[in-house]
Amino acid sequence: MDVKELLVKGLCSTPKYIDMSCRYDKQGSIYDDQCQDIEDFYHYKAEEAIMRCNAKDAALQLKTPLRLFDLGCGSTTKSQYLINELLANKVNVEYTPIDVSKDFLQHACETLKNIYGNRLKVDPIAGDFMNVIPQIGKYRGRKVLLWLSGLQCFPLDTQHQLLSKISESMEGDDSLLMTADITQDKAVIEKAYLDFDDSKPFAKLYTNGVHVANRELGGNIDLSQFILEGRHVEDKDVSRASYNQVWLRSLCNQSYYLEEVGKNVTFEEGEKLHLYSGNGISHKYTIPQLENALASVKLRVLKKWDNGNSVLLLSTRENEL
Ligand SMILES: C[S@@+](CC[C@H](N)C(=O)[O-])C[C@H]1O[C@@H](n2cnc3c(N)ncnc32)[C@H](O)[C@@H]1O
């Protein structure tokens, strides 16, 4: 489904929603990158630290030669720790950064060219995971799928679908190297994610999906007629995870015409426009929850590195008997 279809589907649903992936146009990716500077936003710092401190050890666990597929690569800043270690080990790395945000991917590739020149062969793919992951499965050499800060963004049912697709795309000694947020302290999470100060890139990132909707669908949804709200939901069930929910609450009865698709979207006073689909976003896991999610798609954890807020997991596909 392309961005336009996804937006129309969400805005015509009950309750109305804007899928998380719609916020990641070039501007959204810039806001996402800027979030790392927010003092209370532990997640980026923890993810950066887990890669900086453990990329060397992780690189040593990988069988070579390999092709590195970076799922939702963003700026590639954290991925570069692993690339650097592989290059330092004289590994011939072919790197495929993948992202739904085509413009930002192009920008990331230009940055990589400036940093690595001819030392790194870069072969990007712009597109949605659901379409791209099956293509990865067709690659016949050894694959390492890198998925940093990715799983947690999707609703729980989609997480399972994506992990399933990832597992199906792997064989032999292919591996998945992924990070996830393991923070369980509610106060820390609320301070990091649910402080909606307008001047912070976080509020701008959450609401960027509305700007994308206006641009793509020819609408003029007025953000000043909504208030941004959210909550953290704890769920310790081993087959689930804790998560956040963020929404815009309509301050009045209002209606907008979406010119590009010839549809009206109407909000009643107090109605919520969810800024995610399914159960929520920004999932937080216990280690057993992550192991269970991976085991449910036949992925076995070989090694894990943990810094209290983030975990880096190396998994491989279970051998079929
Ligand atoms: C939270 S950011 C993580 C970026 C980077 N991996 C990092 O750790 O800094 C999520 C990334 O996934 C991309 N993304 C989100 N949904 C996607 C989808 N359905 N298919 C492909 N990429 C997606 C976004 O554009 C964004 O760059």
TrEMBL record:
Pfam families: Methyltransf_33. One of its GO terms (molecular function) is methyltransferase activity. Coiled coil: none annotated. Keywords: Methyltransferase, Transferase. InterPro entries: EgtD_Methyltrsf_superfamily, MeTrfase_dom, MeTrfase_EgtD-like, SAM-dependent_MTases_sf. The keyword Lipid metabolism does not apply. One of its GO terms (biological process) is methylation. Residues 5-310 form the Histidine-specific methyltransferase SAM-dependent domain. This is Histidine-specific methyltransferase SAM-dependent domain-containing protein. It comes from Magallana gigas.
